[in-house]
Amino acid sequence: MNLKIKYALLFVLFIAVLTDNRVTAQSKPAGGQKYDIAAFLYPAYVNDDPRLRPFWPKGIGEWETVTSVQDRFPGFYWNRRPTWGTINEADPAVMSMEINEATKHGVNVFIFDWYWYDGRPFMETTLDNGFLKADNNNKMKFYLMWANHDVVNTWDTRLNKFNENNVIWQGRVSRDEFEKIAKRTIEKYFKQPNYYKINGKPVYMIYDIPQFINGLGGIEQATAALKWFKEETKRAGFPGLELQLTMWGINLNYSGFDGSKTTRPENDFVKKLGFTSSTHYQFAHFVNVNDDYLNILNNVKKEWDHIDATFDIPYYPHISVGWDNSPRTGQSAVVKNNTPDNFEKGLRMAKAYVDAHPKQAPLITINSWNEWTETSYLQPDNVNGYGYLNAIKNVFVDGK
User: Fold this and answer.
1) Which range is the signal sequence, renumbered to this chain (predicted)?
2) Dmax (CA) of the chain
3) Do 379 and 84 form a contact (C-beta atoms < 8 A)?
4) Which CATH number describes the domain made up of 3-396?
């Protein structure tokens, strides 16, 4: 074969491979699969974290809330039981099992809820002692969502029935405290080889923007602090920071921001702060969840269309398993008909959204891996077995 023709054919083949790969330069999917399925992980199910004892004195974290429902509310309808038992997720052997089960079913990223109160980290043992010490954590990526909300009596089943909402710890931090958090995060987590990145930039999600702004002293101060965080990330050797917004109404409250010269003040507010992408954390943040799951999905689709029309930054689609936080308080709005089959319909909706946005990373977020007391979890139980995990596997692994 003529050498020029041979090289020409090789070039065509190379271009075809690139064209067929929707991810291209945007993101290298974790574990080699085509989509990045990222489940939020709530790190309260541990046996060896002394800072959790004031809320759950038995020493098993929020499993205490899960296992005591019938004692606190005799005859109550909520009676879920974990197939894996009340596991200690800060045990690396347990986390190794979870990583195997997650990745086998198509969940290849964990988004760890991460907390900082009273000048130090809180509920960090699941990540530090469990995930990062698991012998197979190279199979899975992770990133952080800073859950910077106040802590009230919700977690403590002895007190939450009084509905007093006393603030135990404030989520807001000063500039000095924020710099301490940011530097620690860069060194301790961003530099982990399996930290999730988009275009080489570590992804970092912030939960409560009003708390952040109030702690820093205003929008201008918050903007300056986030700009500094990006510069620090670059100084650490990364091309930048993928700063991810938790998209919900409270975070788009631009009070004090001059939006009089724009028709899209929410977009300008988010861009001013320096956010470069967004996703949701829970359906409960933006739709009426006291409804049928299929009706909720219709409203979610409308919200995605609104986001596409309003914001310039990429939005990564979010699907929640459900919502019912009555295990904590005995009362709640409740998602109805959120069967694994209907959850799978939501996943297909998210997949279609990703496919329609091929220039952005193939990221889909899910609430959640283990939010048992909010009844929004993928882990197997006595009601649906492995149904929710199998739904992910059907769509993103088996391609059914």
Assistant:
1) 1-25
2) 83
3) yes
4) 3.20.20.80
